[in-house]
Amino acid sequence: MDPVLRIESLKKYYGKSENRTKALRGITFQVMPGEFLGIMGSSGSGKSTLLNCIAAVISPDGGEIFMRNRQIGNLKGAALADYRGKEIGYLFQNFELLDNLTGRENILLPLSLHKVSEKESLQRLNKLASYLEITDVLNKFPAQMSGGQKQRVAAARALILNPKIILADEPTGALDSKNAKTLMEKMAGLNEDSKATILMVTHDSNAASYCSRILFIQDGIIFHEIRRDIPEESREAFYERILMVMAQLGGGSANVLSVSRP
């Protein structure tokens, strides 16, 4: 089985000469179809830079990114727009909904831009709205919604074009614990039931416990990886293992390598 996403020796630098910051220093990994992969690390570790490179929001300074074996660095014009619009679904921390559009209009906007028929659009909308429990806010504007409702509307917008992969950047960062739990349960359900492929950047160990695999980044390098691949392992037990690695990360990179893999 070929990976959905393949990252090879990705590098990204900011600044010049002695003031240069190496945000990514040769990141290599892959995401398989139907995987729920988490990326964790402290602030400034390179997590969001990595996600923005994959989304083609910024260009890397070295290395390659392949989506279904296609090198995205070579995409231009309409092909790049199609990649950003159809192949990836981006879920932002701060929702990024258009304030002058209703929930329905925000969700349907990508379909309109990509000329999807009205009948097909409504079918997709109704299915997602029902699953994400946002049917009652479709006619509301973002200012009339709670944070949890906004994020679920944003999730529907990210999913509406059936992307090959969902990129989620700190999706629970602006939510309280109750809404964060609801969102993660919905995302985990999409992964388990619909085999949605998800790549999530998060600093939240609780949110990360819904993942099947986690890569830990520090100073632009992947230092450690853990998998939830033991059939009887509960999410709570996986959460404890995540906390252990995060504690080691806080203690310095030299300690990370001493954490045993499952």
Strands, helices and their partners?
Layout: E1 5-14, E2 21-31, E3 36-40, H1 47-54, E4 62-67, E5 70-71, H2 77-87, E6 88-91, H3 103-113, H4 118-132, H5 147-159, E7 165-169, H6 177-193, E8 198-201, H7 205-208, E9 213-218, E10 221-227, H8 235-250, H9 253-256
Parallel strand pairs: 3-8, 3-9, 6-7, 7-8
Antiparallel strand pairs: 1-2, 1-4, 4-5, 9-10
Describe the protein in words.
- The structure is a single chain.
- Helices cover 38% and strands 23% of the residues.
- It has 262 residues and is an alpha/beta fold.
- The chain has a single domain, classed as P-loop containing nucleotide triphosphate hydrolases (Rossmann fold, 3-Layer(aba) Sandwich), CATH 3.40.50.300.
- Strands 6-7-8-3-9-10 form a six-stranded mixed sheet, with helices on both faces.
- Strand 4 (62-67) and strand 5 (70-71) form a beta hairpin.
- Helix 3 packs parallel to helix 5 (147-159) and helix 5 runs parallel beside helix 6.
- The longest helix has 17 residues, at 177-193.
- The radius of gyration is 19 Å and the shape is globular.
